[in-house]
Specification:
The complex is a heterodimer of chains A (about 70) and B (about 325).
Chain A (H helix, E strand, L loop, with lengths): L1 H54 L7 H5 L3
Chain B lengths: L7 H6 L30 H7 L5 E10 L4 E14 L7 E15 L3 E8 L4 E8 L4 E9 L7 E9 L3 E8 L3 E9 L4 E10 L4 E11 L3 E8 L3 E9 L4 E10 L4 E11 L3 E8 L3 E11 L2 E10 L4 E10 L2
Parallel strand pairs in B: 1-19
Antiparallel strand pairs in B: 1-2, 2-3, 3-4, 4-5, 5-6, 6-7, 7-8, 8-9, 9-10, 10-11, 11-12, 12-13, 13-14, 14-15, 15-16, 16-17, 17-18, 18-19
Classes of the chains: A mainly alpha (about 70), B mainly beta (about 325).
Keywords (chain B): Acetylation, Ion transport, Membrane, Mitochondrion, Mitochondrion outer membrane, Porin, Protein transport, Transmembrane, Transmembrane beta strand, Transport
Family (chain B): Belongs to the Tom40 family.
Subcellular location (chain B): Mitochondrion outer membrane
């Protein structure tokens, strides 16, 4: 009745703005997905990355120096 | 018309510099002013003297250098950490943690990472993209969702000014700009915008420093006014004082402190207008071995914090 009419009135309007709004929504979802995964990658990978960069800097330290406490 | 000679009054008060740099009698070249300190470091001397890292418990830091640029650090802490609470009582949580860190320090790239046993990562990156543009990233990542924080800063250094743009999580955007107005005075301004809470703020800061003293003033639209003054009494002794007024909570805090930088030790002490007395001693026992003592006494809140520790390595 009133709600069905309201829904029908909203129908074509909905189809129009979901075309533009869905692109924005997809972009937002992808950036959220990218940020979440970037956070996980940074969380697990940052320290190994620093160690990698450090072990390859000059003069190259040896692996034994990395692991030993002396 | 050339600007008037600067500092004619000061030259009568301050002793002339022994190494011959008669800066005070030269005319000021207003087109050739020195680059100011970054905006967040305006109060650097006051913070170094008045806010040492006080702790309660045992602290042990071991830094092992693998080469000039790369080092690993192992850090153990056993003691109580204060949890900020709204009530007047302080809540202390006994904690113990081990923290592993890796540092890579290059003139152009600095990578510092620290990870704790509970999985929290503290990462700092500073990268010089060009001669004048620097990217800084500061992040605290945790396993718990929604508790991680990160901040990206882009710094641009001009001839006599600096500009910075910040992007943080929770849709935080900030920008600040600081300019040298005279060789001793620099003034700056900052604005920030918190997206999620729809709050914004603006602030002004200025810093006046000579060889012997540094005075700063900061005013923010969040209702905070902060002043600080540091006087270098001699090569080894500095005195500092600090005043903060918070309009929202109608709180006024003031503190006075001293900083003795001696050959074998560095002793910092301060007393607060809340009746808190604190001291921090770093004693150099040997090359690369430092012994730390930290004390903070608050009689009114019955909060007594004493800590000791050792730092091995550069």
């Amino acid at each position: 009745m009133a709600s069905a009419a309201a829904e029908k009135g909203k129908g074509p309007a909905d189809a129009e703005d979901t075309a533009a709004a869905s692109a924005a929504r997809l972009a937002r979802e992808w950036t959220t997905w990218a940020m979440k995964n970037a956070k996980v990658v940074a969380h697990y990978g940052f320290i190994p990355f620093v160690i990698l960069v450090g072990m390859n800097s000059e003069p190259k330290p040896r692996l034994a120096q990395l692991l030993s406490p002396v | 018309m050339a600007p008037p000679p600067y500092g004619a009054g000061l030259a009568g008060i301050l002793p002339p510099k022994p190494d011959g740099e008669e800066k005070k009698e030269e005319k000021v070249d207003y087109l050739n002013l020195p680059c100011p300190l970054p905006f967040e470091e305006i109060q650097r001397e006051a913070l170094m003297s008045l806010k040492p890292e006080l702790f309660e418990g045992l602290r042990f830091d071991f830094t092992k250098g693998l080469n000039q640029k790369f080092s690993l650090s192992h850090s153990v802490f056993m003691g109580s950490l204060e949890v900020p609470s709204q009530s007047t009582e302080t809540i202390k949580v006994p904690t113990a943690h081990y923290e592993f860190g890796a540092n890579f320090l290059d003139p152009k790239l600095m990578l510092v990472g620290r990870v704790m046993t509970d999985g929290r990562l503290n990462a700092r990156v500073k990268c010089d993209l060009t001669d004048n543009l620097t990217l800084k990233i500061n992040a605290q990542l945790t396993h718990e969702p929604h508790y991680s924080q990160g901040m990206f800063n882009f710094d641009y250094k001009g001839t006599d000014y600096r500009a910075q743009f910040q992007i943080g999580n929770n849709a935080f955007y900030g920008a600040n700009y600081i300019q040298s107005v005279t060789p001793n005075l620099s003034m700056g301004t900052e604005i920030f915008w918190l997206g999620h809470q729809r709050k914004s703020g603006i602030g002004f800061a200025s810093r006046y420093n000579t060889d012997k003293m540094v005075g700063t003033l900061q005013v923010a639209s969040t209702g905070i006014i902060a002043l600080s003054y540091v006087q270098k009494v001699s090569e080894k002794v500095s005195l500092a004082s600090d005043f903060m007024y918070n309009q929202m909570s109608r709180e006024v805090t003031s503190s006075f402190g001293y900083d003795y930088m001696l050959r074998q030790c560095r002793l910092r002490g301060k007393i607060d207008s809340n009746g808190v007395v604190a001291a921090f001693l770093e004693e150099r026992l040997n090359m690369g071995v430092n012994f730390l003592l930290s004390a903070e006494i608050d009689h009114s809140k019955k909060n007594y914090k004493f800590g000791f520790g050792m730092t091995v390595g550069e």
